[in-house]
Amino acid sequence: MRRSRAHQLAEQFRVKRQRAEGEEQAQKKRAVIIALLPFYLNKVRVENRKPNRPVLNVDWETRRDALTDFEFTRRYRLNKGEFANQLAKILARYPEYQCEGPTAVSPELKLASALRWLAGGAYVDAADVHGQRQATFFVHLWDTLEKLNAVENVHFPLDDAEKLDVLSAEFSAGAGGGAWVGSIGALDGVVFKTQKPKWYEVKNVRDFYCARKHKWGINVQAICSRKCIFLWYSVNAGAAIHDSTAFNATALGRRMAGGEGIPTPYHVLGDAAYPASNCLMTPIPGQHGSPTPEDTFNFFQSSKRMAIERAFGILVKRWGVFSRALQCSLEHSILVIEVCFKLHNVCMLRAGEIERQESAGRFGHVDIATGGQQLSDEEIAEMLSFSEDLRDVDMNIQHAARNWLMESLQRGNCRRPERA
Fold first, then answer.
1. What is the spatial distance between Cα 119 and Cα 39, in angstroms, rounded to a whole number?
2. Rounded distance, CA 268 to CA 347, Å?
3. How far apart are the C-alpha atoms of 319 and 329, rounded to whole Å?
4. How far is CA 376 from CA 179, 351, 383, in A?
5. I want to staple 174 with a disulfide (CB 3.0 to 4.6 A). Which of 32, 82, 365, 368 is the partner?
6. Is 369 in contact with 414 (CB distance < 8 Å)?
């Protein structure tokens, strides 16, 4: 009995040892298979992959010369001179943008493909036309946009009295015959459609969904001149954020709320979404019958403020990328918006562009003063001289500048046109 029991225990021990050795061998085999599996799969993928489509060899000089100035501008939104100027700025600051090598894409083609994509072209078409591989198109795109964003800027000349006088004179022209003075910009917000941001990109994803417009997007606050040139912008809020909240979150908004953002006697025009102050001229709330001073003020304030609406319209029409939701990360969406704002100014400063937009009716205005007749030069000079009175207004009195403008419109015999 004792021998059989010992033999039984020995047999059990041997079986356990063999089982353990077998499991150890199996683990080693699994480890080897796991280590070799990626190499095998990659080999199969390479063997089964279709050969790369040959990239079209594009010569930029040939393509550029084949296009007329009109055709070039229609495709790239910049004319040939502006294109060369932007490329020169990039190469002067970033020499590495000029890549070398037999397969390298020239900087001209990279800039051209980025502009074509911003203008609304599909990325596959932009890549094909400019000799890029689709796999590297977006690498070139984001690199180009970052460099464009760095070499261009938008400046609000709040410390330059001469430029502020020019901006004010632009708003004084047209409706009002010079009685409306002191406006140097028009403020409003616009929502650009984007894809739903990732949870790790923002603190609160719901801030970027606008229930009223049923879309995800970014709220951009901007100020433009009467000629639709952007003087300031801020991309700091989601589509769900109210315009006044988004603006007050900016440094300029906080200064203007305290009456210190805009030098006296100037102001910015805004709609009823913003709180009125001596720096921010908004409509008088409520309904006012014509021809009351309040109704006249609201009419001319709205007429002058339309500049920002026109600027947004020209911007979105020019850069077709905004015709659809931006299908990229939040960081890249902001980059696209900033570059388009800056390139918009480049286009608007083009010789003859503002006149062309005016002839198309995009700067249209109604010259209404003293019964529809434009004031004489002497009368305009007299009206403009009233702006000096603004320097004596007690800026601690809320809406003092608004009250002064109402009086100025009355002195100029300005009124709303008769409704049909």
1. 43
2. 24
3. 19
4. 12, 29, 11
5. 365
6. yes
pLDDT in tens, 97-135: 988 776 788 999 999 999 999 999 999 999 999 989 888
- What's the Cα-to-Cα distance from 218 to each of 119, 202, 209, 236, 329, rounded to whole Å? 19, 12, 9, 8, 12
Identify the CA nearest to 414 among candidates 370, 367, 380. Answer: 370
Q: pLDDT-derived band of residue 390, with 50, 70 and 90 as boundaries?
A: very low
Cβ neighbors of 171 (< 8 A, separation 6 or more) are 180, 183, 184, 226, 269, 304, 307
3-state secondary structure 124-173: HHHHHHCCCCHHHHHHHHHHHHHHHHHHCCCCCCCCCHHHHHHHHHHHHC
Burial class (CB in 10 A: 0-12, 13-18, 19+), 278: buried
Alpha helices in 178-267 (DSSP H): 243-248, 251-257
Identity (one letter) of the amino acid at 66? A
Residue 258 identity: G
Q: What is the pLDDT of residues 366-375, one digit of tens each?
A: 333 333 333 3
| CA dist., res. 420 & res. 417, Å (int) | 9
Rounded to 5 degrees, what are φ and ψ at 9?
-65, -40
Rounded CA-CA distance 214/331 in Å is: 22
DSSP state, 417? P
Nearest residue to 177 (alpha-carbon basis) of 305, 366, 355, 403: 366
Please give the Cα distance from 38 to 63 (Å, whole number). 44
Between CA 137 and CA 130 the distance in angstroms is 10
CB atoms within 10 A of CB 101: 6
CB 228 within 8 A of CB 357: yes
Q: Which amino acid would we find at residue 298? A: N
pLDDT of res. 405: 80
Note whether 329 and 88 are within 8 A (CB).
Answer: no
Report which of 288, 276, 225 is spatially closest to residue 401, judged by C-alpha positions.
Answer: 276
Q: How far apart are CA 123 and CA 336, in angstroms?
A: 14
**Cβ atoms of residues 411 and 178 within 8 Å:** no
Distance CA 341, CA 222 (A): 10
For 134, list phi and psi in degrees, rounded to 5.
Answer: -60, -30
pLDDT at residue 265, rounded to an integer: 85
